[in-house]
Write a structure and sequence with these properties.
about 230 residues; alpha/beta; Trna Endonuclease, Chain: A, domain 1; five-stranded mixed sheet; extended
């Protein structure tokens, strides 16, 4: 009798283990599908960022453009980092650019979150104007820590898709074909000297995080937030 019970318990344990594996695989597949669907709705970010990088360097020169820079929150004792898509350092000012590749209709009130609707799918995402305003503050704090005060900084969010529209317009929310003209028309003429722009680029590069582990951890945290 005891042997029979033992055999039944072993079989039951094996069945439970098999079910656990099946559930784990099922959940993983759902997660992968949802991640893939989200990427399709959002668009693909890296090619868009490369496109903007090429556009900026062609218009303003390679030395003026910093791309994919990780900078620390110095007010948080360097415990957190932010990835900044593009920084353009010109005599007219510093242009901080966030690139988005979302498609569809964007409901974009002046609130914490925006809502994207594409092919009957809805996706909530953090207001990129607010996101990039944080990036502007991070850069400003770094510059102040190095004795650079009253540097004009500009928050720009650019959407690269031709299949995107917005419910609300903002001066600094633009599309790819508007970017170069926007930068050239804004800012203060000769607000910075050539020496200052060189010094600012050097400061940003000096504070940039290059540790692959830190960069990978940041990307993983952002991926978890998105999914």
């Amino acid at each position: 009798m005891n042997e029979t019970i033992k055999l039944l318990l072993i079989c039951l344990a094996a069945l439970v283990a098999s079910l656990a594996v099946v559930i784990l695989v099922f959940v993983s597949v759902i997660h992968i599908k949802s991640a893939a669907a989200r990427r399709k709705v959002e668009g693909y970010g890296r090619p868009s960022e490369k496109k903007i990088d090429s556009l900026l360097k062609k218009a303003f020169g390679e030395n003026a453009v910093l791309t994919g820079i990780y900078l620390p929150y110095i007010k948080l004792n360097y415990d957190k980092q932010a990835e900044i898509d593009h920084i353009v350092v010109l005599r007219s000012g510093i242009y901080v650019i966030e690139v988005k590749s979302h498609n569809g209709r964007i409901h974009n009130p002046n609130e914490h979150d925006w809502l994207q609707i594409y092919n009957d799918k809805k996706l909530k995402f953090y207001n990129p104007l607010r996101q990039n305003n944080t990036h502007v503050r991070i850069i400003n704090d770094i510059l102040k820590s190095e004795g650079q005060y009253n540097v004009p900084l500009y928050n720009i969010v650019v959407f690269t898709s031709n299949k995107v529209s917005f419910t609300n317009s903002y001066e600094n929310l633009i599309k790819t074909d508007q970017l170069v003209t926007y930068i050239r028309r804004h800012g203060k003429k000769n607000a910075l000297s050539t020496a200052q722009t060189a010094r600012i680029r050097a400061i940003i590069k000096r504070h940039a995080i290059r540790d692959p582990k830190v960069m990978r951890r940041h990307k993983n945290e952002m991926r978890k937030y998105k999914l």
